[in-house]
User: Which sequence fits this backbone?
């Protein structure tokens, strides 16, 4: 078995699949990273991804344009998290409960709308997927070429987002202010700046990214929407932010680690090894628990994560 | 800048909010939710009033349908209680979904070897097995929190996904699959293990009474026992309990086990009271719905019962609604979520007041 | 003398909270380059006034003028734009950020964070006022005094020409306090107006002018050079100040065997600071007061004896029986009560009623149960007894503790812990933030407990309280005991030196 796995073409295929599979989770994780750096714990990533996936599919199949689908997903994600932001930032409702409610909303609305919009919900029309976008010149490099530079457009977006988020958080002035909201919002408030505005922006960004991640699932991976298509990727994104200590590059590495497991599982199935496929499917979740158990403390967490900010008078 | 926050309108938190204000706000929020749902009905191409009427008729229209509503409510009472108990202690057990599975699986595991034995033996085994299975699976998350500091929100969600795959392994050409069958399910369970029906002509079974008994016991536990005191104290100020030397580790493990125990019972009632087989479709979905039920019920046992019956009515009426008006029954899941969100918003908003900011001369 | 308008002028400022008037028609002026002190007791209205100046609160009446211009201060942003800066009593810093980042946050324009420019400006400010700050050190690693400098630089960076400091030396050693005043003097010399809010006479006497507030009204503004501290104290409290008298109760005869003995105890202090061994003994019916600046091990000492935190080394014995190594519950069972310093965080469950809070920790006791259930009648009765016995201002035992005032909440905790403390009572800041009436009551109760033969370890920031109540006083510094004397041997100057670490020969 090992000999088969170690063949160059197989290795390349697994690594390329890793990056491809990583895309939706990476997008959602980077978005959640920003939101959590601003102090907001958005548990509703799963539902937001789901809603993004669905509206992307709906818009694309209705209009024939994939990029319109992307736009729809971005807007859906932003809108859903705007609602979430209002509930937890302005009304200060418990963040965990509200996140769950968003997940339920995502599940419920997408299933309902799917059945309402399509006569036969089990045979919804497929849409043409995003094609791979090999980058000229780079795609021909040995090894790296086929693995990294023959991916789809959204994957490049996700990979570029890693240094972009890093730069924003750690090298720009608004990024510093945003991190302050997650560490000690009073310090920013007392200088006369709005904590809430920044938290809203961070949460909406996170939601848009989650929506975009969902869009990848329907527009670049499977060609139609099925209920619960996200299958826990949103939750994995949350785990990855913790495992990645709220820093973009470790988040990327953690995402790749999880996706590698997934890619490996697909390859093994293809070869026909008799391991029950359910074990392989469950592996990422078990792995998540192991990773969290090994990281004994929430080091690197923004100090005021999850705590709604209330300005005390005087 | 932030000038706008001060000159103009301002949301001011109220110090002490009377229950009446909260309830009034919740009621208005639910009315708004109903309006939004009406829009959804329209979007599905149906007359909202007709659709709603069909929903009600499907839920309570006859003796048979009314008892069927209670059948649908039964597992929700259990998972609602499970969530309520944990949430009162601010233990975010999102794992009722998996704990229902665990309860059903453990019950089946200990029961199916007893086929042929009298009901007096099999039924208690089923009930106790379900309790044990759910309790153990939930306690696992408790251990992960106390020994490894893993947030129970995340660990329970991960465990939810894991156990679904475990069940699939057992049922799809696995050791428990029905011999000669094509579906992912077990053979029909022994008649001696089936929860007896309460009335002829309806599916309402013993599980419903067990659920009501559980609600009563949980109410007594929370309000009148030392453990209930500790649960409420932990939910309000965990640190103060620790300073007194009370072991919060013990409380976390006990409460998680208790929560899982209740959820596990939902698994048993569905397998042994309704479907008579262990299969994924029999036990899925109740955990997350139970959380909604718990919140709408104000985390109080009798509120949970009422909310569970409401949701049971929605589920039951939806099938008739789909037949009568063509509105997909899946709408009710969206309705559940909308009700929850508006309820949360209404409850929270009632804790604020809109004021014009005072002006300096 | 030029007729430049004063840096700050307040005319007739009035601030009300409902029916309560916190500031009543206050008028004062502060000139540029002046060190102006705002003096008053707790509740006199100092904090409210400064909050109004910083835009955190909006007064109902009155005008605020900076350099002659009338201003509407709707928010801190407006105050900052007007050149008003504030250093709060509880610092508003981000421990995870560096000094530079803390100063830069919320400033500047443009996308990129211009660290070079900021660094240069901060260096310039530090040079001008003799502050030694490393801009790249994380704030979590700074000493309390250094953190305060960061707060000052923050305000100066934003262009403050009026600086308000709220009780700045509450958290400083006398050495750090002196250094602070040197810096403040330099600020004043460079033309900045400094307002110092304080109720400590030592600081007040170092200012140029003093405004005394009492119960929301301004009593007077005087030149500091022309008054004595006694006159100021009299203005502050409105009556002749009686010198502190010895406690009324007669000293208890020393028992043969000490009740509490602590030998070779080393506390586990934060950040692994090495500590000296603690030896002390406490007899029956004796109050040992523990003085010291916050953060020198007093909290840890009480927590260790109470069994919440294990000691690094050493042993504790109660009536000869070992106490160290026991759980908090076991320690309480031996007749030890513990009144924590942070009453709402550590001492109470805010959503619970008074009666329920009284049984916190005792919820499994057989005396409070009937079978598996809690005996509600017994719990209620305890609640009523406590309300009566401790004069708690509440509507009844079912009232939620979150709605109690600080003093009444403290009384609930005392009622609970007094009942537990048959032998030993550990008290951390029992009268902090408590009004005068409740404070007197609590003092009387402590003396009564002492009269019953209970030993009391009393940690307090108020040296006067300790002098009034204690039989002996210990001073803690750096996690060890720097000095120990009987009340009649104690003098404030000596205690102050020991609090600062002078005399024990120990660096921080």
Assistant:
């Amino acid at each position: 078995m090992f000999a088969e796995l170690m063949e160059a073409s197989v290795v390349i295929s697994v690594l390329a699949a890793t990056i491809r599979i990583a895309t939706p989770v990476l997008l959602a994780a980077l978005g959640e990273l920003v939101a959590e750096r601003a102090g907001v714990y958005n548990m509703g990533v799963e539902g937001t991804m789901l809603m993004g996936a669905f509206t992307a599919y709906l818009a694309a199949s209705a209009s024939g344009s994939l990029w319109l689908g992307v736009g729809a997903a971005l807007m859906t994600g932003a809108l859903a998290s705007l609602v979430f932001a209002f509930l937890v930032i302005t009304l200060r409702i418990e963040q965990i409960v509200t996140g769950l409610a968003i997940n339920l909303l995502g599940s419920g609305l997408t299933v309902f709308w799917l059945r309402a919009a399509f006569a036969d919900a089990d045979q919804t029309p497929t849409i043409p997927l995003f094609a791979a976008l090999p980058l000229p010149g780079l795609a021909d490099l040995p090894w790296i070429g086929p693995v990294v530079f023959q991916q789809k457009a959204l994957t490049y977006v996700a990979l570029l987002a890693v240094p972009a988020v890093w730069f924003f958080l750690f090298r720009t002035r608004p990024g510093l202010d945003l991190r302050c909201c997650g560490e000690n919002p009073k310090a920013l408030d007392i200088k006369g700046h709005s904590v809430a505005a920044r938290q809203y922006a961070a949460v909406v960004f996170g939601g848009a990214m989650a929506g975009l991640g969902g869009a990848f699932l329907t527009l670049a991976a499977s060609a139609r929407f099925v209920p619960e298509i996200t299958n826990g990727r949103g939750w994995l994104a949350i785990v990855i932010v913790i495992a990645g200590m709220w820093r973009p590059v470790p988040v990327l590495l953690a995402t790749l680690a999880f996706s590698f497991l997934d890619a490996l599982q697909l390859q093994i199935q293809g070869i026909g090894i008799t391991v029950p496929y359910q074990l392989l499917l469950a592996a990422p979740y078990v792995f998540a628990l192991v990773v969290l158990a090994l990281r004994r403390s929430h080091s690197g967490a923004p100090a005021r994560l999850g705590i709604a900010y209330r300005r005390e008078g005087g | 800048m932030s000038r706008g926050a001060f000159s103009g309108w301002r949301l001011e938190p109220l110090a002490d909010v009377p229950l009446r204000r909260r309830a009034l706000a919740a009621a208005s929020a639910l009315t708004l939710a109903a309006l939004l749902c009406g829009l959804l009905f329209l979007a599905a191409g149906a007359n909202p009033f007709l659709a709603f009427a069909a929903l009600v008729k499907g839920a309570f229209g006859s003796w048979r349908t009314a008892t069927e509503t209670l059948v649908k409510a039964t597992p929700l009472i259990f998972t609602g209680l499970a969530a309520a108990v944990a949430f009162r202690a601010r233990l975010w057990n999102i794992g009722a979904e998996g704990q229902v599975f665990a309860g059903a699986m453990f019950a089946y595991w200990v029961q199916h070897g007893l086929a042929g034995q009298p009901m007096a033996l099999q039924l208690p085994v089923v009930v106790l097995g379900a309790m044990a299975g759910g309790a153990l699976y939930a306690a696992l998350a408790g251990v992960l929190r106390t020994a490894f500091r893993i947030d129970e929100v995340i660990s329970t969600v991960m465990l939810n996904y894991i156990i679904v795959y475990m069940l699939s392994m057992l049922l799809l050409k696995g050791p428990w699959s029905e011999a000669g069958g094509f579906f992912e399910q077990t053979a029909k369970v022994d008649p001696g293990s089936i929860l007896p029906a309460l009335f002829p002509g309806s599916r309402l079974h013993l599980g419903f009474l067990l659920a009501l008994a559980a609600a009563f016991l949980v109410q007594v536990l929370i309000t009148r026992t030392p453990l209930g005191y500790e649960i409420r104290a932990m939910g309000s100020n965990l640190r103060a309990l620790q300073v007194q030397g009370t072991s919060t580790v013990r409380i976390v493990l006990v409460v998680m086990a208790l929560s899982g125990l209740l959820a596990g019972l939902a698994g048993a009632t569905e397998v042994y009271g309704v479907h008579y087989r262990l299969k994924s479709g029999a036990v899925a979905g109740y955990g997350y719905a139970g959380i909604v039920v718990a919140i709408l019920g104000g985390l109080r046992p009798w509120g949970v019962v009422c909310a569970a019956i409401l949701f049971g009515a929605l589920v039951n009426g939806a099938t008739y609604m789909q037949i009568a008006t063509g509105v997909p029954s899946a709408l009710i899941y969206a309705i559940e979520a909308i009700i929850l969100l508006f309820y949360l918003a209404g409850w929270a908003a009632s804790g604020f007041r809109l004021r014009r900011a005072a002006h300096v001369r | 003398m030029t007729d430049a308008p004063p840096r700050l002028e307040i005319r007739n400022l009035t601030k009300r909270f409902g029916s309560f008037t916190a500031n009543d028609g206050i008028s004062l002026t502060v000139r540029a380059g002046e060190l102006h002190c705002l003096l008053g007791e707790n509740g006199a209205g100092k904090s409210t006034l400064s909050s109004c100046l910083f835009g955190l609160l909006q007064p109902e009446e009155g005008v605020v003028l900076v350099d002659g211009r009338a201003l509407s201060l709707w928010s801190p942003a407006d105050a900052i734009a007007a050149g008003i800066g504030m250093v709060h009593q509880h610092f508003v810093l981000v421990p995870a950020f560096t000094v530079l980042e803390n100063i830069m946050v919320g400033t500047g324009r443009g996308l990129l964070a211009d660290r070079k420019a900021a660094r240069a400006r901060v260096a310039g400010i530090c040079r001008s006022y003799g502050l030694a700050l490393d801009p790249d050190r994380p704030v979590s690693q700074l000493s309390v005094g250094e953190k305060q400098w960061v707060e000052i630089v923050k305000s100066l960076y934003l262009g403050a020409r009026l600086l308000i400091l709220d009780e700045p030396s509450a958290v400083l050693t006398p050495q750090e306090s002196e250094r602070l005043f040197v810096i403040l003097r330099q600020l004043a010399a460079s033309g900045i107006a400094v307002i110092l809010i304080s109720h400590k006479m030592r600081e007040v006497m170092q200012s140029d002018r003093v405004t005394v507030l009492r119960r929301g009204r301004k009593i007077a503004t005087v030149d500091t050079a022309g008054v004595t501290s006694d006159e100021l104290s009299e203005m502050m409290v409105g009556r002749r100040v009686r010198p502190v008298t010895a406690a009324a109760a007669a000293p208890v005869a020393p028992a043969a065997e000490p009740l509490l003995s602590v030998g070779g105890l080393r506390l586990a202090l934060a950040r692994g600071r090495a500590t000296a061994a603690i030896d002390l003994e406490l007899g029956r019916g004796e109050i040992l007061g523990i003085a010291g600046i916050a953060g020198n091990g007093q909290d840890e000492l009480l927590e260790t004896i109470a069994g919440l935190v294990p000691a690094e080394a050493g042993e504790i014995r109660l009536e000869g029986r070992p106490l160290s190594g026991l759980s908090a519950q076991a320690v309480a069972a031996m007749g030890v009560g513990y009144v924590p310093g942070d009453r709402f965080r550590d001492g109470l469950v805010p959503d619970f009623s008074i009666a329920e809070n009284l049984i916190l920790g005792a919820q499994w006791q057989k005396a409070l149960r009937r079978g598996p259930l809690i005996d509600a009648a017994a719990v209620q009765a305890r609640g009523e007894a406590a309300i009566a016995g401790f004069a708690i201002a509440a509507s009844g035992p079912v009232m939620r503790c979150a709605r109690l005032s600080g003093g009444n909440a403290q009384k609930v905790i005392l009622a609970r812990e007094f009942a537990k403390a048959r032998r030993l009572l550990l008290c951390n800041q029992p009268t902090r933030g408590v009004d005068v009436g409740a404070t007197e009551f609590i003092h009387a109760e402590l003396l009564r407990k002492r009269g019953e033969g209970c030993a009391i370890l009393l940690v307090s920031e108020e040296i006067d309280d300790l002098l009034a109540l204690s039989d002996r006083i210990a001073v803690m510094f750096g996690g060890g005991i720097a000095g120990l004397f009987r009340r009649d041997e104690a003098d404030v100057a000596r205690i102050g030196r020991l609090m600062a670490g002078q005399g024990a020969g120990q660096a921080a």
In short: The mean pLDDT of chain B is 88.
